[in-house]
Amino acid sequence: MYITLMPLPPGTRLGTYEIVASLGAGGMGEVYRAKDLRLGREVALKMLPTDVASHPDRLARFEREARTVAGLSHPNIVVLHSVEDVGDVRFLTMELVEGQSLDKHVTPGGLAVARVLDLGIALSDALTSAHEKGVIHRDLKPASVMLTREGRVKV
Predict the structure, then answer these.
(1) pLDDT tens digits for 123-132?
(2) Which of 38, 91, 104, 151 is the most buried (most CB within 10 A)?
(3) 14 near 38, Cβ under 8 Å?
(4) Would you please indicate which residues are annotated as catalytic (active-site) residues?
């Protein structure tokens, strides 16, 4: 049985990863900034929720989906590096996106039409690429769309 050990304080080691900071939490788990000590890079670690990690059927479905997502290659889709097990903890390692979620960029007055079109085109390109491989994003919302420091979309 897999369990998630939350919260994970900075300095916690999970195999070759060291937790740097919490990045947030949502329906599909908690996300941490971590250092990959083997490769010397920073990554995002997404801890699987207990209800996914502890049920064999849900875990098998999740791993099938992870294999499919890992095969995606698009500049607007976050790279999934691996699914890992360390003790009773199951987690994903992903590209660390430096920036903020789209919901932080939407102001009460809204965004300029040109910016909405730029973001919409990039988001549509990413989703089209995923759909062509049979992947459907099941939790698409402004909080799950990242904008890099340069303003690029990452789903």
Answers:
(1) 999 999 999 9
(2) 91
(3) no
(4) 139
